[in-house]
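Incident log, structure service

09:12 report received: a user says their structure output differs between two submissions of the same chain.
09:20 pulled the input from the user's history:
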Amino acid sequence: MSSTPAPSPELGAFLRAHRELLKPSDVGLVATARRRTPGLRREEVASLSGVGLAWYTWLEQGRVTASRQVLAAVSRALRLDAAGQRHAMRLAGYHDPGPEPGPRDTAGDALAAAVGPVLDSWPASPAVLLDRHFDLLCWNTAWSALWGSPASIPADRRNLMWLMVADGRLRTVLHDWEPLAMNVFQHFRAQAGRALTDGRTVEVYEHMERDAPEFRHWWGCHSVAELTARTVTVEPAGAQRLELSLSSFHPVDDPSALVLLFTPVAEEGRRRMSELVARPLRPVG
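09:34 re-ran on a clean worker, output below:
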């Protein structure tokens, strides 16, 4: 990890977005009738952080770097939660480097070979392995039975964010899909690190822009959050409704990857999922 990270325009945009969301009362200031700036003024954040106005302005403009200590002070002034503070640190270059970018197919194949048998051990629980870009590396039969087989999707669009906004079957099967879809985008930003602005992420965003432009505000937003455990309701075509509990974890071999697991909540749900898995697979679409 470099001790002197480069200036980050992405960090500046992130800080500015959160500054504009805060109200003066959120930080103990009194708003006046003459205030025209949305949210806090830069000078107010600078004062609360204990830094100079010019320097903070340059930070938002992506022209200077910040130490961990100073960035922590700015994060506190902006009332960032734990996920937001981690994201700010990562954008500034203060994050675990993780695996170096390399041949995507080679690295993905190796990880899929290691994790795939684990996914298959859950025959009635849809599960998928995602890489640091949220590309789908492998999935089990239950995942294909519920959402449709990802193998039928072009490889350059085989990505969870693309699925959440552009896959008609997923949106039809998943009740209240929007909160989960938004959380997927927030979690990607929170953990992406260097992957946030690299070529593959740009490619995925371009595909979403072409295929689902009505949701462009989702990938243009700067909010971050952890992907929280929750219960979701699904109703596959021709099958009864059931509830699944979503959980996630990182493989030991690659902490930048993510496994999503949807476990039937009750015995009846397990029976219905087993029946769904026994049906012939249908393609996504």
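09:41 both user submissions now match this output. Likely a transient worker issue. Closing.
09:42 reviewer note: Confidence is low (pLDDT under 50) at residues 97-103. The chain has 13 helices and five strands.
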